[in-house]
Amino acid sequence: MGIIGNNGTGKSTFIKMLLGIEQPDSGNFDIGETVNFGYYSQEGLQFDEQTKVIDAVQKIAEVIDLGNGNKLTASQFLQHFLFAPAKQHDFVYKLSGGEKRRLHLCTVLIKNPNFLILDEPTNDLDIITLNILEEYLIGFKGCLIVISHDRYFMDKVVDHLLCFHGDAEIRDFPGNYTQYRDWKSLEDKRVAEETKPPKPIKTSEKPVQQEKTKLTFREKQEFEGLEAEIQRLETEKEQLAQQLSSGNLSSEELINASNRISQVVSLIDEKTYRWLELSEFA
């Protein structure tokens, strides 16, 4: 299941209440005794800098059971997430920021949770790690909640959405991110037609300024263009991901492609936020 919504609509707060990190103002969450949560977020990078990579994972579990009789040792699991054997014996303080985030993900997954929660994973992880994570999640047998504005990633791993609109308004939508956006566009047009006010009677009185309820002409043009722009960026991102995973790029090409895909991901997030803002008045 995916969770989407503008900043400040309560997405992360909902997750923290589910995990027991924060308490609800009223009511309660009834969590089953066999539920084993795994939680990845941007706030989770808390390692002893003097710990070796392999030790940070092995102190959680020596082996992970993947089901169907398949098991991986901690070292094999780290290799799957691009930590070469030599790298596994480096101290945490030697890792780059991206490597530390990848290690954080490994420490979450090797707990073998049956209820996995990922809060904005595409903001932190490089595209190669995301491709590996996508493969892992597609085969994941437990419950999954993903908070993200990355339509490409969400479409790959979720088939149900909770859409947070703020002020405790949440819509339950049976579909992926693209299907929701298509539905939302049609629904906004339908509501606009049904609520279209009658033509006002001309009067000499000065009209009272009202709260904004619809888009300006320029905003409408921007809104209509955002859909195509986001789709173009999603296509470029997918092409770059394929190039990065092909193994055919030179060192310089690899660096250029990695830099560009980071820019594309940021642009997708920026334009998706804007699309969500404008869609409230479309």
UniProtKB/TrEMBL annotation:
The gene is btuD_192. GO terms for molecular function: ATP binding; ATP hydrolysis activity; DNA binding. InterPro entries: ABC_tran_C (IPR032524), ABC_transporter-like_ATP-bd (IPR003439), ABCF_ATPase (IPR051309), P-loop_NTPase (IPR027417), Val-tRNA_synth_C_sf (IPR037118). Keywords: ATP-binding, Coiled coil, Nucleotide-binding. Residues 216-250 form a coiled coil. Residues 214-280 form the ABC transporter Uup C-terminal domain. The keyword ATP-binding applies. Residues 1-123 form the ABC transporter domain. It holds the Pfam family ABC_tran_CTD. It comes from bioreactor metagenome. Gene3D superfamilies: P-loop containing nucleotide triphosphate hydrolases (3.40.50.300), Valyl-tRNA synthetase, C-terminal domain (1.10.287.380). This is Vitamin B12 import ATP-binding protein BtuD. Residues 191-211 are annotated as: Disordered.
